[in-house]
Write a structure and sequence with these properties.
alpha+beta; Killer Toxin P4, Chain A; 6-stranded antiparallel β-sheet; 3 helices; 6 strands; 33% helix; disordered N terminus; disordered C terminus; disulfide bond; GNK2; Gnk2-homologous domain-containing protein; repeat
Amino acid sequence: MFSAFISSFSDDHILCGTASNRSSGEIVDNIRRVMWVLSELVRSQSLGGFSTLKPPFKVFGYGHCYGHLFGKDCDLYFNDASTKLQTCLPAASDRVYLDGCFHRYDTHSFYRKTLVDDAVVQPWQ
């Protein structure tokens, strides 16, 4: 569940989840590990997903530069998203939407879900 904290910088949006009930040091370490690996994947491929299953909990992450950004431009936007994302720590989840990229982490797997699933909008039956 996401808190009401939405920060807006031009077209940038940050959605911070609720605070983790786990040790903040443990969750922050795992989130930073996921963010580091994602930055390497995004730098080389413009997108990537990575998870850490290190106990006592899991952290799932995803990063993606939009089609108009490549190489160094993608890297700059993604680094900016990573910096903004850290304003939510030690939240259990976070999403950052920038003009050029998207960055997300969560303590549950969201890889096969859509934004509609997360918004709890029911599909047509």
